[in-house]
């Protein structure tokens, strides 16, 4: 897929209900990028967000992560796994939370699938001892299909389009372009960029 240019991005954003970058992510970026990051302050921001610390602890203590011993709090995660790893898991968790409780059943199902894929990428990274940080792979997994959430939210016939692709063994991306003039990888790229995901990761998501 081709990286969308700025003109395309400007045209796409008003068409779709892309969840904006939430304030806690901005706060965490500022705190983590400080010359002298304070873990207690970072942990305080995370613990203030409903369900966030539990979501992160669930990931790092899951069988997919294969930790040798359980991690019991956010500060321990930061100390043992690093601030960048903690931030990656926070961003992915806060993003998927935006869609996990959608009133649209297809959006919820697609969001759940993305979390499953993120966990699978986490598991593979641990099994293969990948040089790529596990939190990066998890984040890519969480965002990679998010364009499908947006199409499902906007178009009532999107589920039928996906079924058509499966029944005919067709490329869903081609059908999306045919029906809507845009494809879910492009939407995923734009969404990830708006969530301050680094450009090299956005390209992998695309």
Description:
By secondary structure, the protein is mostly helical. The protein is 68% helix and 0% strand. The termini are close together.
Features:
globular, single chain, 206 residues, 68% helix, mainly alpha
What is the beta-strand fraction?
under 5%
> Quaternary status of these chains?
single chain
Kindly state the number of beta strands.
0
Q: Give the structural class.
A: mainly alpha
Detail the poorly predicted runs.
none
Sheet having the most strands:
none
User: Count of helices?
Assistant: 13
First and last CA, distance: 6 Å
N-to-C order of helices and strands: HHHHHHHHHHHHH
- Rounded radius of gyration (Å): 18 Å
Principal-axis shape equals globular
User: What number is the mean pLDDT?
Assistant: 92
In percent, how helical is the residue content? 55-70%
Give the SSE map.
Elements: H1 6-12, H2 23-32, H3 39-48, H4 52-60, H5 74-81, H6 83-100, H7 105-127, H8 134-143, H9 146-154, H10 158-167, H11 172-180, H12 184-194, H13 199-205
Helix pairs in contact: 2-3, 2-6, 3-5, 4-6, 5-6, 6-8, 7-8, 7-9, 8-13, 9-12, 10-11, 12-13
């Amino acid at each position: 897929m081709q990286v969308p240019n700025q003109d395309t991005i400007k045209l796409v954003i008003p068409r779709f209900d892309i969840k904006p970058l939430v304030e806690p992510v901005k706060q965490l970026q500022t705190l983590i990028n400080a010359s002298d990051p304070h873990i207690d302050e970072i942990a305080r921001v995370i613990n203030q967000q409903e369900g966030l610390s539990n979501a992160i602890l669930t990931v790092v203590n899951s069988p997919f992560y294969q930790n040798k011993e359980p991690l019991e709090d956010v500060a321990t995660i930061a100390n043992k796994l690093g601030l960048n790893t903690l931030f990656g898991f926070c961003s992915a968790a806060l993003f998927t939370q935006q869609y996990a409780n959608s009133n649209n059943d297809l959006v919820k199902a697609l969001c759940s699938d993305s979390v499953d894929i993120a966990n699978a990428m986490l598991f593979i990274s641990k099994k293969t001892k990948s040089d790529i940080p596990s939190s990066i792979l998890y984040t890519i997994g969480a965002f990679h299909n998010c364009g499908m959430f947006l199409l499902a939210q906007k178009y009532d016939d999107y589920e039928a389009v996906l079924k058509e692709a499966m029944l005919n063994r067709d490329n869903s991306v081609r059908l999306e372009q045919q029906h809507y003039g845009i494809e879910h990888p492009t939407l995923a790229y734009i969404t990830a960029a708006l969530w301050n995901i680094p450009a090299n990761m956005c390209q992998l998501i695309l």
